[in-house]
Amino acid sequence: MTPRQMTMVGFMQAGNVTVYSGSWRYPSADLGFLTMDYYQHIARTLEQGRFDCVFFDDRLAMPGVYGNSVADAVRYGARPIKLDLTAVLGGIIGATSRIGIGATYSTTYYDPFHVARTFATLDHLSGGRAAWNVVTSVNDSEAQNFGLESHLDHDERYDRAHEFLDAVGALWDSWEDDALILDRESGEFADPAKVHEVNHDGTYFSVRGPLTVPRTPQGRPAILQAGSSGRGREFAARWADMIFTADPGLPVAQQHYKDQRERIAATGRDPDSVKILPMAYAVVGETQAIAEEKERLFLDAYVHPVASLTLLSEVMNYDFAQHDLDDPVTEDMMAAGGGIRGLAEGVRRHLDREVTVRDLAAHRATLLQGPRFVGTPGRVADQMQEWVESEGCDGFVLAATHLPGAFEEFVRMVVPILQERGLMRREYAGTTLRDHLGIERPPRTL
């Protein structure tokens, strides 16, 4: 039987750390995160490994919920730096030719026309490689950078997001594929009968259109979304081409995979057309002992406990400065913060016990957010293969313990084994991200 080829996405931050908040302290880490060469080198490395896509997470504020101050985020490097992603992706487009490029944009603090134009432009300039990671944002710090006192509640954020995607999709479809004529002799540039106003008038948005960018090489840029709550999974089932999950163990992942595919089918979509991808770390060593020693250092040596609490407060929109590390996480605590309930429930399922503040803090700041594959290149490949073949996922969003070393080691040591087993491509078969993912270019719906 031919092996099922896994989807591989590189997970990036345009700042001083990876999703692992101690990454900047690793002795061989490159601290050139304020230079374009840094991002271009990493993207070229992932393209050399024939990854489907590299995408960038984002937040619209410095972590400032913990102690109602950004001081500890700045002091300990707990993600205080977030560069503008449009500029970063522009540089990567010029340095690569095949790998997909994705960015996070919020449906809570941007407008549909702005997002539609940004990603349509990126899709054209990259030759059809753009992806949008859709988020609803998470905390009051972000709200306060956009003239609001507090963040919208969970259900209202998703109501707004559904309408946002409707409006963006209509804008992407506002030009027919053959609208451009470009007849120099007659002077006719485009057919006005094939460029349409959108006239979206909804609860949250009013958008006339049409978009100022013609329909793109992919028809619509690919959509990536992460949502662990019930509303989040429903949203992903309706809209996503790639679903980004945070399942820490294989049994939890298998349950999530089954549930998510059932939700996709219930919307009338083909579950095989959507890739379900847990975030994972790979700690690779020339021997098992070397890999395990590296893992120990990542878990124990480089993350300051206050950095953990700073990031935990950010993601749950709740000030954990008022608690000790060994305090239990209560229902009242989660409700008071209005935070990401799915995070606490996922950690509870994984540990099979009630969780403490320390458990959640470790989950956010170290290597506990998803599967951690540790060992020799062959052992890491074995573990990844097990997840894919046992219906835990369709591939992985690979996070880095340090940059660029973690990706360089994976591409040099693990990718050739996965390619030999038929689990990763040796060459790109097409030119667009949808080609890489094996999903069709969508027809216009407007």
UniProtKB/TrEMBL annotation:
Write out the residues that bind FMN. Answer: D58, T104, H154, Y158, S228, S229
The Luciferase-like domain, residue ranges? 35-390
Q: Which is an annotated Pfam family here?
A: Bac_luciferase
> Keywords on this record?
Flavoprotein, FMN, Monooxygenase, Oxidoreductase
Question: Which InterPro entries does the record cross-reference, listed alphabetically?
Answer: Diverse_substr_monoxygenases, Luciferase-like_dom, Luciferase-like_sf, NTA_MOA
An example of a GO molecular function for this protein is: oxidoreductase activity, acting on paired donors, with incorporation or reduction of molecular oxygen
Family affiliation: Belongs to the NtaA/SnaA/DszA monooxygenase family.
The protein's matches in NCBIfam families, at most eight in alphabetical order, are given as: FMN_nitrolo
* Name the record gives this protein: Monooxygenase
**What species is this protein from?**
Pseudonocardia sulfidoxydans NBRC 16205
